[in-house]
Amino acid sequence: NAGVTQTPKFRVLKTGQSMTLLCAQDMNHEYMYWYRQDPGMGLRLIHYSVGEGTTAKGEVPDGYNVSRLKKQNFLLGLESAAPSQTSVYFCASSTYSRSSYNEQFFGPGTRLTVL
Amino acid sequence: KNEVEQSPQNLTAQEGEFITINCSYSVGISALHWLQQHPGGGIVSLFMLSSGKKKHGRLIATINIQEKHSSLHITASHPRDSAVYICAVNQGGKLIFGQGTELSVKP
Known about the structure:
The complex is a heterodimer. Helices cover 0% and strands 53% of the residues of chain A. Chain A has strands at residues 4-7, 10-13, 19-25, 31-38, 42-51, 54-57, 65-67, 73-78, 87-94, 105-106, 110-114. In chain A, the strands form 2 sheets. In chain A, strands 2, 4, 5, 6, 9, 10 and 11 form a 7-stranded mixed β-sheet that branches. The model of chain A has no long low-confidence stretch (mean pLDDT 92). Chain B has strands spanning 4-7, 10-14, 19-25, 31-37, 43-49, 52-56, 59-64, 69-74, 83-91, 94-97, 101-106. In chain B, the strands form 2 sheets. In chain B, strands 2, 4, 5, 9, 10 and 11 form a 6-stranded mixed β-sheet that branches. The N and C termini of chain B lie far apart (36 Å). Chain A binds chain B through residues 31, 33, 40-45, 48, 50, 58, 88, 90, 99-106, 108-109, 111, and chain B through 2, 4, 30-31, 33, 35, 41-45, 48, 50, 86, 88, 90, 92-95, 97-100.
């Protein structure tokens, strides 16, 4: 099993360009998450999904859109990239549990630079 | 004030030393996670706990729900333990992360 994979691993954009980050998981997990990691700030939740066809905003959703058309995929879109979106992006997935004791499995990350 | 605070932010140790990293939180939680991030970025889950203590090899994690505090201990530290250790609390299925503790273990 590949676990959680992310595409691409690195990307450089110019201000105003758009792009989509792809996250795929082969563990049949219900929940999927997109985080950004910035120096001194820790990981912050951008958007998340509790199942196919559903998405919700996290802590820092502005400037991003997401889609979960298939259970195994979670896409993060930047419509008009800004330098403030320079960051490392992590995708994660977890099982559903009423107790919420859900271990999250992380992808390897995507390093995005916006010039 | 951050909802999840870790201390210290940076830690340098000599090989073989006993290491403690602390995590305090200010919100109600269902579980607490300790994660490890190696240079190169990959993040792996070390522990998930809601009470008491868990042990895995040389790593021990404890939590005191009443005091809203958790510790991660590393016994007989080794240079390969050098990484960033991240505390995260599970609130309603979503994780709130601490800023991480960067550990460097010198040979």
